[in-house]
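Order emerges. One example.
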Amino acid sequence: MRLVGRAEFGWPASAAAVARPREGLVVHYDGADQGLARRAHADCVAYWKRTRRFHVETRGWVDIGYSFGACPHGVIFEGRGLDRAQAAQPGGNSTWYSVTLMLGPGEDPTPEQVDAVRQLRAWLMSRGVRGAVKGHRDFVATSCPGDRLYRMVRDGTFTRSPSREGDEVTARDVWTHEIKVPWGTAENPEWQAKSILINTNQRVRSVEAKLDAQNEVIKALAEAVAARTEVDVESLLARIRAELERVTVRLDVS
């Protein structure tokens, strides 16, 4: 799956409320034809930024309304992203993820766009989300996602297996993959690789700080002993350091 993250649009982390959607994926569309399939991919990026600006500045939402977007060139754009409530389908904003296909009622999705949605669904399923797919109109009375897309929702088009193209694991996939960690909490049992690395770095720095403080205490102790007895401080410190160097410190990361 080709996924373009928020940072690549110059956006900070979503300010939307934290949620754990697990029911499946809801399909949306734009109310007007966009013609993006006939245009350069840069126009898809501009459309996505424009959509967020409209949602924030005109509708007063905290962020773009959708979890993800699927462009006609087969690329998934991050909206609010994982673990965030949406402003997309009332009654399912915190329990379902949403994806809007960048097209309108008079347009058919491209094969690449359909496959991108399938890949997104498979990716979400690998993260514990159910494989169900619904349309926006399954939640409220609306024309969204249009008759063409809704027929595809109903006939199982989006629940078919994605193509194998673009399935190679990228550095971003590894960096953002979540695994269970011993120090995880009930609310956050899984951590991304980057968070584990940051946490490990913080722990190492904490150990280093404690060792520095310990060295100062040892030095003070050596000086105190030398003051009471005729002991060479530097010689005593050298012996203590030699003993400490024999100790093997092992960091187990599980």
